[in-house]
Design a protein that fits this description.
The complex is a heterodimer.
Chain A: E1 4-7, E2 10-13, E3 19-25, E4 31-38, E5 42-49, E6 56-57, E7 64-66, E8 76-78, E9 87-94, E10 104-105, E11 109-113
Parallel strand pairs in A: 2-11
Antiparallel strand pairs in A: 1-3, 3-8, 4-5, 4-9, 5-6, 7-8, 9-10, 9-11
Chain B: E1 4-7, E2 10-14, E3 19-25, E4 30-38, E5 45-51, E6 56-59, E7 62-67, E8 72-77, E9 86-94, E10 102-103, E11 107-112
Parallel strand pairs in B: 2-11
Antiparallel strand pairs in B: 1-3, 3-8, 4-5, 4-9, 6-7, 7-8, 9-10, 9-11
The chains are: A mainly beta, B mainly beta.
């Protein structure tokens, strides 16, 4: 069982370019999340999805968009990257029901916007 | 929204000693408090969690305490080992939206052999 996979592992991106970070889970979890991790700031929620077909805004959604066409995939898109979006991005999933709220995190994508 | 503060930012202990990491939160509606451990180059992993109807929870060398009146909760690691060295994050989430987790800024724990 792979759990959660993210791609790419790392990327250097020119400012103004469009980029999609991919996230796939094989645990059939209902809920999925995108976080960014910056030094000294911990993890901040960008967007989340309770179930396929629904999405919601987190703490820092500006400049990012997501879609949830099916249970397994939750891509994050930067329409026009800016240097302040340089960060490590983590995708996570959770069962999202029945009192279980443990989040399972992917290995992360390190993004540098120049 | 919720504001979670975590202290200290770094903690260095001798192997075998205890380590304590503290977090405070602002939203009295928060009722679920997980702790995550992040090893270098990996994603965070849940190590223990506590609900608001419980004051303390233990799992072998790890324990978490919660004081809802004071809005703070703590992670206690006893008999620390070098493999406990990692970054630890606390988090809180309000009961009305279990999808919105608010994380502390992290504590880098170094256990010296």
């Amino acid at each position: 069982i792979a759990g959660i996979t993210q791609a790419p592992t790392s990327q250097i991106l020119a400012a103004g370019r469009r980029m999609t970070l991919r996230c796939t889970q094989d645990m059939r979890h209902n809920a999925m999340y995108w976080y960014r991790q910056d030094l000294g700031l911990g993890l901040r929620l960008i967007h989340y999805s309770n179930t396929a077909g629904t999405t919601g805004k987190g703490e820092v959604p500006d400049g990012y968009s997501v879609s949830r066409a099916n249970t397994d995939d939750f891509p994050l898109t930067l329409a026009s990257a800016v240097p302040s979006q340089t960060s490590v991005y983590f995708c996570a999933s959770s069962v999202g029901r029945g009192g279980s709220y443990e989040q399972y995190f992917g290995p992360g994508t390190r993004l540098t916007v120049t | 929204g919720e504001n979670v503060e975590q202290h200290p930012s770094t903690l260095s202990v001798q192997e075998g000693d205890s380590a304590v990491i503290k977090c405070t939160y602002s939203d009295s509606a928060s009722n679920y408090f997980p702790w995550y451990k992040q090893e270098l180059g990996k994603g965070p992993q849940l190590i223990i969690d506590i609900r608001s109807n419980v004051g303390e929870k233990k799992d072998q060398r790890i324990a978490v305490t919660l004081n809802k009146t004071a809005k703070h909760f703590s992670l206690h690691i006893t008999e620390t080992q070098p493999e406990d060295s990692a970054v630890y994050f606390c988090a809180a989430t309000p009961g009305y939206n279990f999808n919105k987790f608010y994380f502390g800024s992290g504590t880098k724990l170094n256990v010296k052999p």
